[in-house]
Amino acid sequence: MIKLVEVVYDGANQYHLQEIIVNSSQIVSIKPDDHMAGAHAKGNLPEGLYEAQQFSRVTFTNGREMVAVGTPEMIGKKTKNILHG
Q1: pLDDT at 33 > cutoff 60
Q2: Which CATH number describes the domain made up of 2-84?
């Protein structure tokens, strides 16, 4: 299990962040999310994130997707550390 910070859209043009613990063995793919980086550049995300913060789209075996704070490499490293370390 790994802890990630998920970006959640509430449907009213508001985003918020929440910590989520996911089963790392259920992750199928991790790729950069440029759309969320654009939303951040426009000031649509909560304050407190680094100006150059990057985001990733994480896909799970059940087809669910989430946007997480961090690069695919960072999230992949967390997963690898759990599986191999």
Answers
A1: yes
A2: 2.30.29
